[in-house]
Amino acid sequence: MRVSLKDVAAHAGVSIKTVSNVVNNYQHVTPAMRERVQRSIDVLGYRPNLAARHLRKGRTGIIALALPELGNPYFAELAAAVIDAAAAHEYIVLLDHTGGYREQEVLVSQGFRARVIDGLILSPIELEAEDLRDRAENVPLVLLGERDYDLPYDHIAIDNVAAARAAVRHLVELGRREVAFIGARRGRSEPAQLRVRGWREELTAAGLPADDGLVAATDGWGHADGADAMRRILESGRRPDAVFAYNDPMAIGAMRVLFEWGLRVPEDIAVVGFDDVVEGHFGAVTLTSVSPDKEAIGRLAVESVLERLGGNEVSEPHRVWADYRLVERESTLGRAAAADGRG
């Protein structure tokens, strides 16, 4: 049978209210009383009924997280960060997969799960501002990613232009002069556009040509897309001395093609990715990558939802820039330099 607050109170010899105060971490409980009640909780194996607790507040205890690609390592790691952040506030996360299709993003944003969720965290790809402007659903909405919406919704993002410039600057400082960009998405994709812009701005600032012949567009962002983009550049007769990829899977796909062509990384061609996913840490050549603070993004998104649930008015968009850093590894430094501690 399920252990109740009453059972814990009887075992500890205290009131039910005292047990409730301990379970809810109220500050006015003395350390000795907290220890006494916690001992009974541990002995009896009491677990709070979170569903009942949320229902008493008129909530479900569920936050929805809608992502475009669950198979993408970045989004998988981001989902883990959101789930961990939500768990710290005794919330669970319902995952939705939109595929990056506008109709699915509209469906999610308009609240088709509104009866079962308290808030929504959405990472849109194709969603337009007009799709959100007349949003009738009052479930709090927090946006992730780089689409710029001038609307009264909290928005968590990183500065993609600055991050891309940091990646290219690293390559230039290493003496690379012909830097290709792979992953300029065919069709609209603001993150890709922003990263191409950062690539272009940094090369221009360094007095180097931003050669459009070294920009490879793709339909997707996976390993095969990166491999295909790298292969097309090589087959065109071009030999860049560095590659900046839209994300890590594309960078890893590109490195496979370089290996097949007998080109060494980084001796012949240095490679930088984006997102710093775990896969890039363990290849035969570890991957230099722009590392967004995924834990901070998850925490800020959850905190934004909970803040709105607390009744705060949203009069202006609340845009928060999460941090990032460039993690230097073997794909640009070489094994010896990376082993010396620069990566």
From TrEMBL:
DNA-binding among keywords: yes
Keywords, ordered alphabetically: DNA-binding, Transcription, Transcription regulation
PROSITE patterns named among the record's database cross-references: HTH_LACI_1 (PS00356), HTH_LACI_2 (PS50932)
InterPro entries documented for this protein: HTH_LacI (IPR000843), LacI/GalR-like_sensor (IPR046335), Lambda_DNA-bd_dom_sf (IPR010982), Peripla_BP_I (IPR028082)
Annotated HTH lacI-type domain residues: 3-57
SMART domains recorded: HTH_LACI
Source species, domain of life: Bacteria
Official protein name in the record: LacI family transcriptional regulator
Species per Swiss-Prot/TrEMBL record: Streptomyces phaeofaciens
A molecular-function term among this protein's GO annotations: transcription cis-regulatory region binding
